[in-house]
Fold this protein.
Amino acid sequence: MDNPLLVPSPLPFGAPRFDLIRPEHWMPAFRAAIAEGKAEADAVAATPDEPTFENTVEALEFAGQALDRVSGLFFNLLEAESDDRLQALAEEVSPLLTEYDMYVSLNETLFARVKAVWEQRETLSLAPDQRKLLEESYKGFVRSGALLSPEDKETYAKLEEELSLLELKYGKNVLDATNAFSLEITDEAELEGLPQYVRDLGAQTAREKGRDGWVFDLTHPSYVPFLQFSARADLRERMWRAYNARALGGAFDNRDICLKISDLRRRIAQLLGYADWAAYALEDRMAKDITAVRQLLDALMVPSLPAARREVAELLAWAQERGYAQAQMQPWDFAFWSEKYRAEHFALSEEQLKPYFRLEDCIDAVFGLATRLYGVQFVPRPDLPVYHPDVRVYDVQEADGRHLALFYADFFPRPGKRGGAWMTNFRELSAPGGVEQRPFVSIVTNFTRPTPDAPSLLTHDELTTLLHEFGHALHGMLAEGRYPSLTGTNVARDFVELPSQLMENWAFEPQWLHTFARHWQTGEPIPDAFVERLVAARNYHAAYFQVRQLRFGLLDLAWHTLREEIRRSKPANDVTALESAALMDCAVLPDIPGSCISTAFGHIFSGGYSAGYYSYKWAEVLEADAFSLFREKGIFSREVAGSFRENLLSKGGSEDEALLYRRFRGHEPDPQALLDKLEIH
């Protein structure tokens, strides 16, 4: 049989043949696609004609498409449906991909042709997306070592290969460490405080693992509600310590890998002429430099830190009045007492809300919101193959029936899926030879599975997560353009979260919630009082959670602004000491020995957010300012949504992101917009 990864798919829209792909297909496909990509790059380099935008820059943009197709499938499955064989294949293929990248980016003939076009840029009549592609192509070569000496190019290639392998190893260790722990309970008395849905999940997990009683693990749907509701402080502490010590020592220790990744990034950046990795990474972002990032973090931290400490102090005093014996609020107790306080003061709990957020209803409502704002439709395509029975696929269409994208949704946790939630593409939008290929977009979450007694019911936080990832998906599905590297979510890292965080706002809009939130058993609509309390509680502990995110951003910067002289001394050679030093001035809860963020901080060590975690807050500022226009014109305003789509969602990275934002909003965003939204003063 032909390798399904190497032949065009006969399915509608060229949908992937997930039903035919086998592990033994990957390596032959990668090798063939790499060979094809090299041949295409060689053909551009060997073009006898003088370099032009079309025969050089545009030709390179569409070279290596077969490899993009294979990689887009493989690395997404590695995150969502992995096993030992795929993990081993990833380690085998990673050096091949690094070598391919070096083959292209360090090709002196190719760079000379791109440079020749770059030097003529002022005299060329290029469209905005063509100018951006030329700029990104030239910068891409330079940032990949094109100006280095032959000796330094060789060093650069070795460092990149080593880095890619370590990032893979880091992610594998986090997944393995997460899967290695479980809390087994056989005495029902130890379930005290846990709502029935959490108990049901524990029982189901136990059955799946062939255990008696109840099993709770470190995946989000299990870990988070356990800390919120378990009345057993000793078991909460055990869970918290396990979660916050993932990959800290033991068989899956990431401490040395953290140090090595940080050091390799520093060496790569300095080899390329930058002071450190942050300077290298930020050049390609809206922020541009570390000064702008620190100004943002400071502008938010200065008012938020004292407010967060007041929130924790008030919660501690309230808990102590109710028998809490600790002198400080312990981190494993915060979620428990916070939930109790919220339930009493706002007469609202996640347990009360969950029955009104059946997953199927939430999906329909999110699709309906997209229809109301943007006119798009979602048509189920159960005839198209998927990579796991849980996955659903939809044909996304304009109101007039025009096909926009295939949308894949994968909602439930399983052992081969990493934790968290994310959006990704199996295929980017592109138009090689002027023939448009619409994207294949996917969202992956870890929501509570249905049980024999109940459907999948979302917490309100999970509904917000669904909206967040769907916002990313809209950025991909509504993309327009011809160059894959400039379409959809291929934008500056600190801009990419704007569409996703904007969508979160509807989770707190009564007008939208009342359209779908009904009790899954009785069919009764969500009570007005519940919605009112939900909105009132929106900014509950907002300062605490803001500081938590800002601390992650500061820790990220600490890892990626390390100079060589600092790395030779403490605390830079000790992961936990470095972490403590970076965060000591903004502590809100006690620092617990034996815990560590860095060893499982996948966003910055293996997830593409290195020197970029601040971007969540950067984008929140944009989002707070942007949504104020919806508030002004109406939360379902087709006028505002149309402008947002035209000026931002459809444009991708085809123009400077700051220009795109100003075109939509008419002014620069201000951090005060976020502080006002969160009511932090």
The beta strands are 182-185, 214-217, 377-380, 392-397, 403-410, 422-427, 440-444.
